[in-house]
Specification:
The chain is α/β, with parallel strands linked by helices. Helix content is 47%, strand content 13%. The protein has a single domain, classed as Metal-dependent hydrolases (TIM Barrel). Strand 5, helix 7 (196-206) and strand 6 form a beta-alpha-beta unit.
Length: 327
Amino acid sequence: MTLPKVELHLHLEGAAPPAFIRGLAAEKHMDISGIFDDAGGYAYRDFWHFLKVYEAATSTLTTPADYARLTRAVLEESAASGVIYCETFLSPDFCGGRDLAAWRDYLHAIRDAAAEAERDLGITLRGIVTPIRHFGPEKARETAVCAAETAGDFIVGFGLAGDEKIGKPKDFAWSFDLAREAGLRLTCHAGEWGGPQSVRDAWQDLRVERIGHGVRAIEDLHLVDALAEAGVVLEVCPGSNIALGLYPNWRAHPINALRERGVLVTISTDDPPFFHTTMTREYEQLARAFDWDEAVFRDIARGSAQAAFCDPKTKDKILKKLENIDV
């Protein structure tokens, strides 16, 4: 579909085209051939192996200049799918080892590349700083300091990603409190592998306004109704969920059921080349599975823009772009 789109759940490293990572590895004489399949795509067995492949691919990104090139490559892919606004997860763990001075250098490079892409491609990018859950709460505190010290017009949010089965959301409460005090908006991955209780824990213990994924909430309708009443937004990534085996096919995915019950759902790709998807493909598959028409997608895009963590001026600009579409 050619409709303008808003994406709120995208991992920057996870969006790296495989050819980009292979080229970077070749430049640096790194052998990471084991993470690719015969067709040149990323190869992994399950979610936990995916995390290892993800980190191996990310190991090629070692300088701010690498991240500038990555940002441009990712935004070119997003813009080709009609994305006009995107929020991406950024991890100081990968960008300077949580050293604040190094993080600032990486962030400067990413921002410059994003500004060029906005000028050239018409796509706006904002960042959500994200500790890696399976790296533990202590490293998350260091990441939270990086986030708090660079909060502003570009770094607009704070989240938590990684293996949901390690630790509890409340273990990261200090980091989320610091980010909240710095004025950052909050999200958290939950309800993908941890079930509905993980959604409840993230929402109640960390007081987030958005949940990354959150689809397993459908298994507890009392929770679904509570999320709908509270206006909690789910950053839903259907193609990712299906590729990783949470649901067998698009019609079995709960995004439509959640929406019909009043939950505010958005559409994102998560780690698109890993899951052989794009925002265009997500729209096309959802239209096919649930007979959604352009009015539904316009409504979801508007809701996504309203749920964005950016400043009011940027949000107004994105909403105006969405309203000016000719249908």
